[in-house]
């Protein structure tokens, strides 16, 4: 049926789309001449190729999958986790196309393994966990030295453990399997002459399990290496009589046998409300997969340094970073992306 004066009704014109976008109309020139051997003339073939190229080019504008950054941390009540949660929030907010998340782990040794094998992109580790052979091909690199871990030997305030020698025959948590704490403690017990399996009854417990076991009397003491303050230890000291054992005498023996990575640091009364002590400290690094793109690592380094006050609000240890101290990552080299940012910032 037709409408008088208008002619036959036309069907609605359908709008062609490519990758969600309207195609630009093109004027197609008529093909002249004949086909020879069913092969198009060069001019015709060029027109077809141009049409296909424009169509494919439109598809390339579609956004890709987000860049995944998994941050290997540690116990949910320890410094690595608090630091990592805050860093992940900053990366998600300020780097478009990045999706950062935190992975709970046994800490340093496991973190190095995860980052080195590509199962995490970033991670925290103690310096003494890293290999010292400079000829080995590095699978991880450093972004920054972030703060120093301090080794805690925690015992009941009413218990018998006052010195390292008092651990002989006692039930002691030496840290979770795969943690930096376990590595440092095994070295400490060796230099203290307590390295034999029959000399200390060792339990491989994480921080939260260690606190619970000490409270219930299932162990006599536990070790934990972390930045000040360690929240779980602060909660323990607030709720029950607690002693932190002085370890200052063991810094030099550790340095003589295992290298100069170890230093002495104080834990003042203000941290946990217990008697002040001197202990063994170990630098902490934020590490990254050696093959990550330089531009991405440079952005992570920039935000790590520029958002220090925000990171410090998550945990005070993060506030001790500075560009000048961050570059001291021996024996681990800085990632080229991190090194580029520090050169530009001139720490």
Q: How would you characterize this protein structure?
A:
This protein is α/β, with parallel strands linked by helices and 347 residues long. The protein has two domains: 67-146 and 284-345, D-Maltodextrin-Binding Protein, domain 2 (3-Layer(aba) Sandwich), CATH 3.40.190.10; 148-283, Periplasmic binding protein-like II (D-Maltodextrin-Binding Protein, domain 2), CATH 3.40.190.10. It has twelve helices and 14 strands. The protein has helices spanning 42-59, 79-94, 108-116, 180-191, 207-216, 231-239, 251-258, 269-272, 294-306, 308-314, 323-326, 336-345, and strands at 2-3, 7-8, 17-18, 21-22, 67-72, 98-103, 122-126, 140-156, 171-173, 201-203, 221-226, 242-244, 263-267, 277-289. The model is unreliable at 1-62 (pLDDT under 50).
Mean pLDDT: 84
- Rg is 30 Å
* CATH classification, class level of the largest domain: Alpha Beta
- Counted up, domains total 2
Sequence stretches where pLDDT stays below 50 over 5 or more residues: 1-62
CATH superfamily caption of the largest domain: Periplasmic binding protein-like II
CATH arch. level architecture of the largest domain: 3-Layer(aba) Sandwich
What is the CATH third-level topology name of the largest domain? D-Maltodextrin-Binding Protein, domain 2
Distance between the terminal alpha carbons, to the nearest Å? Answer: 82 Å
The backbone outline, from C-alpha atoms, is globular
Structural class: alpha/beta
